[in-house]
Write a structure and sequence with these properties.
The complex is a heterodimer of chains A (about 190) and B (about 80). In chain A, strand 2 (about 90-95) and strand 3 form a beta hairpin. Chain A contains 5 helices and 7 strands, in the order βαααββββαββα. Chain A is elongated, with a radius of gyration of 25 Å. With about 190 residues, chain A is α+β, with helices and mostly antiparallel strands. In chain A, the strands form 2 sheets. Chain A has a 4-stranded antiparallel β-sheet with strand order 1-2-3-4. Chain B contains 2 helices and 2 strands, in the order βααβ. Chain B has one domain (about 1-65). The two termini of chain B are about 20 Å apart. With about 80 residues, chain B is mostly helical. The chains are: A alpha+beta (about 190), B mainly alpha (about 80). The interface of A and B includes residues 4, 5, 63, 77 and 106 of A.
């Protein structure tokens, strides 16, 4: 069974699907920050003699040291933040609800949820070269509520996810119908 | 008369403090809202270790600089 801290955990509720974006998304960000990190040494190799003059200058060399230090500290911070952002964007499908948790920057976090039996339509979409190659895409979940539809962004195997959600919804609706019938009988 | 280069050092320290504040918020989010798996703890420890390493290496260079020097505002004229 999957384990995760879900908000307002209901009695007997079990997590069936826990999704994050495809690892390729975080890999691309890590490659980007790694590339930014190797830029200063590349500049040093290209402008070798010019930079040697700057380093020999008593007034400019402290500034270069401070700037380089800050540069690497912040590259490392932004790379870590990319990971935190990736890790905390989670879509959860439980036996009762679908929950959408999105971390927007450091000081904004959105948590929205909808009952499983209110889901009307599940659509999966695979778009683009890497999406097709690595099998990741978007799953759109339309609910009976007026609220905008739920979107699972860049999740792995979107087609399989959509099929699994449809099965869960059918099962849940069937259970609710039986429960309603049972309630009607007991009230009579 | 000139600008003491230690001003740049203090500006640097302010940016380091901002870095530490953002580091705290990132780690807090990961611990508070994420799931405390071994992988998660390893990543936090790895991040802190590398940050510490960058600061230590920086300190090694910064410690060698004479921060009492000044940048002259009025250029000296040689006759």
């Amino acid at each position: 069974m999957l384990k995760f801290h879900i908000p307002h955990h209901l009695k007997g509720e079990k997590i069936i699907i826990l999704l994050r974006r495809h690892p390729f998304i975080i890999l691309i960000k890590i490659i980007f920050w790694a590339f930014v990190a190797i830029l200063p040494p590349i500049f040093y190799l290209i402008l070798g003699d010019e930079l040697a003059k700057i380093f020999s200058n008593e007034l400019l060399s402290p500034l270069v040291v401070l700037f380089t230090s800050l540069c690497y500290l912040y590259i490392w911070l932004f790379a870590f933040h990319s990971f935190v952002d990736y890790y905390l964007d989670v879509w959860i499908v439980t036996t009762e609800r679908i929950i959408n948790i999105e971390q927007k920057g450091l000081f904004a976090r959105t948590v929205s949820e909808q009952k499983i039996y209110r889901i009307q339509d599940v659509t999966s979409e695979l778009k683009g070269f890497f999406s097709t190659l690595l099998d990741f895409g978007t799953v759109y979940i339309q609910t009976a509520a007026e609220k905008e539809r739920f979107i699972f962004k860049q999740v792995p195997a979107p087609y399989k996810v959509a099929r699994k959600i449809t099965k869960i919804v059918e099962k849940n609706k069937k259970f609710h119908r039986l429960k309603e019938q049972k309630d009607k009988i007991t009230t009579k | 008369m000139g600008i003491p280069i230690s001003i740049f050092y203090f500006i640097y320290l302010i940016f380091v403090l901002i870095f530490l504040a953002f580091t705290f918020f990132n780690v807090y989010h990961l611990v508070r809202f994420g799931f405390l798996t071994i992988g998660n703890i390893v990543i936090v420890c790895f991040y802190i270790a590398i940050s510490f390493l960058i600061l230590v290496i920086s300190w090694g260079y910064i410690g060698q600089i004479d921060w009492t020097a000044t940048i002259p505002i009025i250029p000296t004229l040689n006759f």
